[in-house]
Design goal:
The protein is built from 14 helices and two strands. The protein is mainly α and 282 residues long. It has one domain: MetI-like fold. It has a two-stranded antiparallel ribbon with strand order 1-2. Helix 2 crosses helix 14, helix 4 packs antiparallel against helix 11 and helix 5 packs across helix 8. The longest helix has 33 residues.
Amino acid sequence: MAAITAKHARAPEAVPRQRRRRTSFPVWRWVILAIAAVYFLVPLAAALRFAGISAFGSLFTEPGIWPALWLSLRLAAITWSVTMVLMVPTTVYVHLRMPRVRRMLETVTILPIVIPPVVLATGVLQAMPLALKASVWLLGLEYVVLALPFAYRALDAGLRSIDVKTLTEASNSLGAGTLTTLWRVILPNIRTAVISATVLIVALVLGEFTMASIVLKVTFPVWIVNTDQLNGTIPTAASLFALFVTWIILMAITVAASRQSRRTGGGEVTLFAVAPRETIGN
């Protein structure tokens, strides 16, 4: 009896040791983080040393930089708007009514990554009417095709983290229509997924070069490449500036969305998944 008592007395001390062993950060993870940091930071430091601080001062006085930057921002807004209008209702409908089609939709949306951008741009140019070829909407529609894989996977992860069917049935039982349910019930619960898709779309549009050069649109990446033929330091400074600004914007969106999610009980914002939490209402 005394031995059993002593055994149970020592048990609470073993639990904290086991927990400490589980929560310890292994050395190999620090090694991987250090290698990744060197891999990403060394080229940036070399580019900054090559361009010099003085190149950033004359960057914004270069001809054509502001129209190119404004065009890229407009394309990001167009791409995001069209992609959300197309993908949010489609993804919700597939989750509700056609769950077996999810596999096929995943395969279809992965095609823009498999097919080269040159082929996509050439096919769109052959299919679109002449009036659309001269407008900025052509490049925006091409970017929508490129954004489909990233937007669908972010939205699909958000919808899988909640019970869409139960929420829809509860909303319908209270008298809400389809649009009201989508706007006031589904969207508030996948807000973090929408923001994750926004982050990916903005990053994609601000860095795409191939399609813009094929359709003869001078976006910010195209302007960088064209300027690189005349001066090497200015395009390097522009690339670093675009990279830093994009990082700041994406981090700000992610941090703001995470704080909003913690206040409302939503999921954690990540780029490819949404951690499930309790369902919220509006």
